[in-house]
Automatic annotation (TrEMBL):
GO terms for molecular function: adenosine deaminase activity; zinc ion binding. Residues 14-348 form the Adenosine deaminase domain. Belongs to the metallo-dependent hydrolases superfamily. Adenosine and AMP deaminases family. Adenosine deaminase subfamily. Keywords: Hydrolase, Metal-binding, Nucleotide metabolism, Zinc. NCBIfam families: aden_deam, PRK09358.1-2. The keyword Metal-binding applies. Its cofactor is Zn(2+). Pfam families: A_deaminase (PF00962). This is Adenosine deaminase. Gene3D superfamilies: Metal-dependent hydrolases (3.20.20.140).
Length: 357
């Protein structure tokens, strides 16, 4: 009989992460160090253990806006090339220790220029950290440059994505509070990216509902949806039989990837609990669902822990975890040959070995 996956064995599984924020996964010890070295004096505490607890407690408000406030401290200490390179290197190291073989980590260059760095210097510092971390720890990391949806710099950031796409930037993203800031405000950037054959994802369907998802796909042409949790609003279940609305059916038919982050979705109020998370029904209906961490510090989580929670809530086995992982690798923004190589030579054999015990 196949043994049920445990947190310990899941950590050994080759995993793929598509939705992880660089400024949402900084080590508390590093935050304290960087604050001291950079003269940042606004931390609520300089004890790393207490700081970790503070981030976790501040992130459990059920409000996306309140959740986003915690980033003022991580971003505040990431304002030099040296700090950005260090955080990126440590991110690669932490992800590799969790068994992740490929990751796409996103960050907003415009948030790291308050002490004079140019957008290009920010991007180059982050790329340097991931390149070194990848070499030292055996993980492939691609970056997504993110524009803030309440600002007006999306075209600049889109141009960065294209300029550095042969050096490690694999795509573009917009993030920030959804309500009042529809993705269509950045239509010129998305049209530019499409003309340049560049990849992009859009945060949609987390803090706002179906209109956000519809705009992201039908107006902006998103390759993937960041979260996309509210697609569940277009699915009705009567007498145990699910019925998909036109938007939900389109998302499933087109195999549009959903970058779901279970723990984070609960913290921001997009889902009530792991057991009630839409991921359960969406998995049953074979949507292109992927599992992600979003912000490892704020959510106090790892990708292995996200998988373990789903195993406990839905009784998933190794085949389910492999399915999520292959979905993620298929949906990555790197080339087809590299994706296929990782699926056939790393992911499938790795899960088969764990399944056999």
């Amino acid at each position: 009989m196949e043994e049920r996956p445990t947190l310990e064995t899941i950590r050994r599984a080759p995993k793929v992460l598509l939705h992880d924020h660089l400024d949402g996964g900084v080590r508390p010890e590093t935050i304290v160090d960087l604050a001291r070295d950079g003269g940042y004096t606004d931390l609520p505490t300089t004890d790393p253990g207490s700081l970790r607890t503070w981030f976790a407690e501040a992130s459990n408000s059920g409000s996306l806006e309140r959740y986003l406030e915690t980033f003022s401290h991580t971003v505040g200490v990431m304002q030099s090339a040296e700090s950005l390179t260090r955080v990126a290197y440590e991110c690669a190291e932490d992800l590799a220790k969790d068994g992740i073989v490929y990751a796409e980590v996103r960050y907003a260059p415009e948030l790291h220029t308050s002490t004079g760095l140019s957008l290009e210097q920010v991007v180059e510092a982050v790329l340097a950290g991931f390149a070194a971390g990848g070499r030292d720890h055996g993980i492939r990391v691609g970056t997504l440059v993110t524009a803030m949806r309440h600002q007006a710099r999306s075209m600049e950031i889109a141009e960065l994505a294209v300029r550095y796409r042969d050096e490690g930037v694999v795509g573009f993203d917009i993030a920030g509070a959804e309500a009042g800031y529809p993705p269509t405000r950045h239509l010129d950037a998305f049209e530019y990216l499409q003309r340049e054959n560049a990849h992009f994802t859009i945060h949609a369907g987390e803090g706002f509902g179906l209109p956000s998802i519809w705009q992201a796909i039908q107006w902006c042409g998103a390759d993937r949806l960041g979260h996309g949790v509210r697609i569940i609003d277009d699915i009705t279940v009567e007498n145990g039989a699910p019925e998909l609305g036109r938007l939900a059916a389109y998302v499933r038919d087109k195999r549009i990837p959903l970058e779901m982050c279970p723990t984070s979705n609960i913290q921001t109020g997009a889902a009530k609990s792991i057991a009630e998370h839409p991921i359960g029904l969406l998995r049953q209906l074979s949507f292109r669902v992927t599992v992600n961490t979003d912000n490892r510090l704020m959510s106090g989580t790892t990708l292995s822990e996200e998988f373990a929670k789903l195993v406990d809530a839905f009784g998933y086995g190794w085949d389910d975890l492999r399915w999520f992982t292959v979905n993620a690798m298929k949906s990555a923004f790197i080339g087809f040959d590299e994706r296929l190589e990782l699926i056939n030579r790393v992911i499938k054999p790795g899960y088969e070995e764990l399944k056999q015990g």
